[in-house]
């Protein structure tokens, strides 16, 4: 793609990076075939190629964002399926991140929308506060029809029973069983602590069972992904910096072989910390190191080459590959291979490259499109007649569970059960 950026604009490193990404695009349109929003609307501006044109026009002319570009950028799921498809290696993720930050800085949204986005960014990153929000949602759910479409969507996604806070999620060290093979820090997330703490509990049991010392580092918390995708760059960097500092302190004290992440949406962001802080003289080196040792939990389990007991219940497991894992991190083989090695009958979901509609806060901010994508995903899952659905991302688990009666579990819950851990509560509830 030809660009005509004034030289003065390119003195800004973010602008120079975006110009480089734009020039890589060859207008081929392969991305339109795998873009979920384009599949729904058929609007070129709801495809990556169309959004790239809008972003180019805005950046190249140094213009403020307007309602048109904001609408189409907001509709993007950040699923990154287009990057898997693109033959030219266009790094759409970094381009969109830059554009969204500009939208946040230059476009004044209607007051209710500003309030909603600010509330989501503030509440979801704070587990204790989010837990109180879930309690309120449970009380308000019977009156959902009285609220706006977005608020009704939020109420529908809240669990009927709010889990208690888990002891696993406070700063501490879990010793490895037997000889220690690895020492890792677990990112225990923010929303996950409130919505489904059983995931972190299963992760700790599973890793320690196979010789991994697990550290919950003091000072580590939200990865910053939520704020990042809302264009709130400063807030995102602040949260990321806290994690970098916390894990760097832990490295200095006892060393870390890996940063383990069991929510793939967070993993994509943590693995990008090196890029986020590339121009920061204080944290560039530390951020790059953290990014280099960050791994999805499935990658670490595969690295351990576990000899599974082979006692897994004979269940048909439909594995949903989260977009942030398969497109954002290019982790595609390990999860299904682990489930199969543990003894489960594992089924790949048709149209597995298409997003389920969760996408962080997307199902709250774009409920109509998210619901259409969930219906499509659930139909493909239920066509397999599985006993259970597995995924590696809390957002996907919550989204899919809202559209089916099938139990939807995290990968680690099934693997923990198959190797001696307790039967997942979601399965016990069905007995």
TrEMBL record:
Membrane-traversing stretches: none
GO molecular function: 4 iron, 4 sulfur cluster binding; glycolate dehydrogenase activity; metal ion binding
Protein name as catalogued: Glycolate oxidase iron-sulfur subunit
Primary role: Component of a complex that catalyzes the oxidation of glycolate to glyoxylate.
The protein's enzyme class: oxidoreductase
Cofactor(s) for this UniProt protein: [4Fe-4S] cluster
Secretion signal span: none
Keywords: 4Fe-4S, Electron transport, Iron, Iron-sulfur, Metal-binding, Repeat, Transport
4Fe-4S ferredoxin-type domain residues: 16-45, 67-96
EC number: 1.1.99.14
Pfam families attached to this UniProt entry: CCG, Fer4_8
Catalytic activity from the UniProt record: (R)-lactate + A = pyruvate + AH2; glycolate + A = glyoxylate + AH2
PANTHER family (alphabetical): GLYCOLATE OXIDASE IRON-SULFUR SUBUNIT
Gene3D superfamilies membership: Alpha-helical ferredoxin (1.10.1060.10)
Family annotation (PROSITE patterns): 4FE4S_FER_1, 4FE4S_FER_2
Cofactor: binding comment: Binds 2 [4Fe-4S] clusters.
Domain of life: Bacteria
């Amino acid at each position: 793609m030809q660009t005509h950026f004034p030289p003065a604009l390119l003195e800004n490193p973010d602008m120079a990076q975006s110009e480089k990404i734009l020039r890589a695009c060859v207008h081929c349109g392969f991305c339109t075939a795998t873009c979920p929003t384009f599949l729904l609307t058929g609007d070129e501006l709801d495809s990556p190629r169309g959004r790239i044109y809008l972003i180019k026009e805005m950046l190249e002319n140094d213009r403020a964002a307007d309602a048109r570009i904001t609408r189409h950028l907001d509709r993007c799921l950040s699923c990154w399926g287009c990057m898997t498809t693109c033959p030219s290696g266009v790094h759409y993720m970094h381009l969109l991140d830059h554009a969204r930050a500009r939208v946040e800085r230059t476009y004044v949204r209607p007051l209710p929308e500003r309030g909603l986005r600010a509330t989501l960014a503030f509440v979801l990153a704070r587990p204790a506060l989010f837990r109180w929000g879930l309690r309120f949602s449970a009380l308000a759910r019977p009156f959902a029809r009285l609220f706006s479409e977005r608020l009704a969507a939020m109420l529908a996604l809240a669990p009927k029973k709010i889990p208690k806070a888990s002891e696993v999620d406070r700063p501490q060290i879990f010793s490895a069983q037997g000889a220690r093979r690895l020492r890792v820090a677990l990112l225990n997330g923010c929303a996950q602590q409130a919505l489904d703490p059983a995931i972190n509990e299963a992760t700790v049991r599973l890793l320690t069972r196979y010789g991994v010392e697990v550290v919950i580092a003091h000072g580590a918390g939200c990865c910053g992904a939520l704020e990042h995708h809302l264009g709130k760059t400063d807030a995102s960097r602040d949260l990321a910096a806290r994690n970098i500092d916390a894990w760097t302190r832990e490295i200095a004290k006892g060393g870390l072989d890996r940063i383990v992440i069991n929510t793939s949406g967070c993993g994509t962001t943590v693995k990008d910390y090196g890029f986020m802080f590339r121009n920061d003289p204080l944290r560039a080196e530390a951020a790059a190191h953290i990014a280099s040792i960050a791994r999805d939990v499935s990658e670490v389990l595969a690295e351990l080459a576990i000899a599974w007991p082979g006692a897994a219940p004979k269940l048909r497991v439909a594995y949903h590959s989260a977009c942030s894992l398969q497109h954002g991190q290019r982790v595609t083989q390990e999860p299904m291979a682990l489930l199969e090695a543990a003894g489960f009958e594992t089924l790949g979901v048709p149209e597995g490259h298409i997003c389920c509609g969760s996408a962080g806060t997307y199902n709250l901010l774009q409920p109509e499109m998210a619901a259409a994508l969930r219906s499509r995903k659930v139909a493909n899952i239920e066509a397999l007649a599985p006993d259970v659905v597995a995924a590696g991302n809390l957002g996907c688990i919550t989204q899919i569970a809202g559209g089916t009666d099938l139990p939807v579990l995290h990968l680690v819950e099934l693997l923990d059960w198959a190797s001696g851990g307790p039967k997942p509560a979601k399965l016990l509830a069905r007995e």
